[in-house]
Amino acid sequence: MKKQLREWGIFLAIGLFLYFTGLYTDVAALAQRAILSTGLITADTELEDPEKADFNFTLQTLDGQMVKLEDFKGKVIFLNLWATWCPPCIAEMPGIQDLYDKIDNEDIVFVMLSMDNSAEKPKKFIDKKEYTFPVYLPASRVPDVFRSPSIPTTYVISKDGKIVSKKVGMANYDTKAFRNFLNKQASKVSK
């Protein structure tokens, strides 16, 4: 019994150390990144019943400029909701950056929507990790169609304004199948 208590005490001490030093998020994200590297969790493609996206939404860049989601209408939109305090969000980011680097199509735009309360944390995080994809904050109420019970959540909006893919939870987006899916969406003629 003493041995079990000691083992649990050590485990608890490590957990508390990671939590109070602020390393918990990084360590948890690293473990989840290892899970993503197995290829077991991949991005969803093609919803059976796509719903209409709501473009009545204003975004703010990390340097304070206002952008309307409507400005991207007619393009394929990769919309990812994330936050700096979310380990699964951080775990999937290297794959999203790789996807962003490999997509060479002006008809596909990335909207990395930080759910942090201010621009300071995501800006510091993005700069530290040297990510180059565009990051925004909500500057108006997030439309109901983009509300999710948890983050990360990723939506792909087609050129004709329908949500054709939705993934709640982390995934590996840097796969040939997902790149083909995005490019196929971009090649479709919008109605």
Strand and helix layout:
Layout lengths: L1 H20 L2 H14 L13 E2 L5 E4 L4 E3 L7 E7 L4 H16 L5 E7 L5 H10 L5 E4 L14 E5 L4 E7 L7 H12 L4
Parallel strand pairs: 4-5, 5-6
Antiparallel strand pairs: 1-8, 2-3, 2-6, 4-7, 7-8
Let me know the number of strands.
8
State the secondary-structure class.
alpha+beta
Spatial order of the strands forming the largest sheet: 1-8-7-4-5-6-2-3
Mean pLDDT, nearest integer?
87
First-to-last CA distance: 69 Å
Runs with pLDDT <50, length 5+? Answer: none
Measured on Cα atoms, how large is the radius of gyration? Answer: 18 Å
Number of helices: 5
Can you describe this structure?
It comes from Fulvivirga kasyanovii. Residues 48-187 form the Thioredoxin domain. InterPro entries: AhpC/TSA, Thioredoxin-like_sf, Thioredoxin_domain, Thioredoxin_ResA/DsbE_sf. The protein is of the alpha+beta class. The chain has five helices and eight strands; from the N terminus they run ααββββαβαβββα. The protein has helices at 2-21, 24-37, 87-102, 120-129, 176-187; strands at 51-52, 58-61, 66-68, 76-82, 108-114, 135-138, 153-157, 162-168. An eight-stranded mixed beta sheet has the order 1-8-7-4-5-6-2-3, covered by helices on one side. α2 crosses α3 (87-102). The longest helix is centred in the N-terminal third of the chain and has 20 residues, at 2-21. The model has no long low-confidence stretch (mean pLDDT 87).
